[in-house]
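Working notes for the structural subgroup meeting. M.R. asked for a predicted model of this chain before we commit to crystallization trials. I am recording the input and output together here so anyone reviewing the notebook later can reproduce the run.

Input as submitted:
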Amino acid sequence: MSRLQISNSQDESQSQYSHHCILTIKHKNSYISSLVIGGKLLYTGSSNKEIQILKRDNLRYEFDHEDANNNNNMMITGKGAVKSLVVSAEKIYSAHQDHKIRVWKVDETDEQQKKLTQLATLPTFSDRALTMLVAKNHVQVTRHKKSTWVHHNDTVSALAVSRDGLVLYSVSWDRTLKIWSTTDFKCLESVANAHDDAINAVALSSKGDVYTGSTDKKIKIWRKLKSPKGEKHSLITTLQKHKSGINALALSTDENVLYSGASDRLIMVWEKCDDDDDDDDMVVVCTLKGHVKSILCLSVVSDLLCSGSADETIRIWRGVEKCYFCWAVLEGHTGPVKCLTSETDHSRLSDTSASYLIYSGGLDSDIKVWQILIPL
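Returned structure, recorded in token form:
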């Protein structure tokens, strides 16, 4: 069933302070567009509309080729490439190029063959039908086209889910930010013209602040506020420093720092302004330079920032008192690095070093697993 080719590239001699690729998974005929960890599984989304399920235990040191091939499960999804994946509790949400969001649940009945069962497509039929009947629910999409406000009218580029799992946020190249209920899958709110151009990235704090990054070179921060018409998301502030479109956003573990990556080859480090008169404003405290092409993705694990670029490399950054340095450059992809996710490798923790696993996907159709060992 699977069309993956897998090779083990682990070096037998491991240094206490090292970084190396321990595994390469080759995915034929499509590039990898999204990676997300959910429990014991790694989910991958690709340009050929597939969501792949990989057991993370099979991506480690005691790697068995035949066993891994038997446990790589695939699901063909919709009509558009998978652009983003998020996991919350037992649900997986996928964003697609066909303007839709799909909701899945992992079927646990077969321990050997994990499967995805589709629960819904957003907007749902009932949501579409109810809004279609009322004229005020129709909005102008283009000069000659109208649509109901619950619809995305272009590629859904990124997703985020609240910590309690009750709310899903989606952004799109149609310049809108939409908010969905994960209990009945209704569209609760749509922020029209949230940006002046396509929205490429979204990040969400545990307090509910929503960060969006766009091709218009701006980062916007949104917050749910009370108004005469009820609680709605309102613009809190706009951050402008990048010289080209923003492709990726990530929050630090403590959520005090926002990282943004853009086509200008820069990663900017934002922190809240010390000015008591404007607690919501953020300022750039550091600009990270090193990549020679566009920044396409970011991931944070512990005190590490991982960045993937069109220059085919991954850089690992560490910050000490607002001073950041590039700790490592991971080379091995033969195409732009499109997506990253990361985790602490608890199986290799020691008193002298910390271990992390970085998963990367690229336009070269490869998924790579990297081990990072850093002294404590």
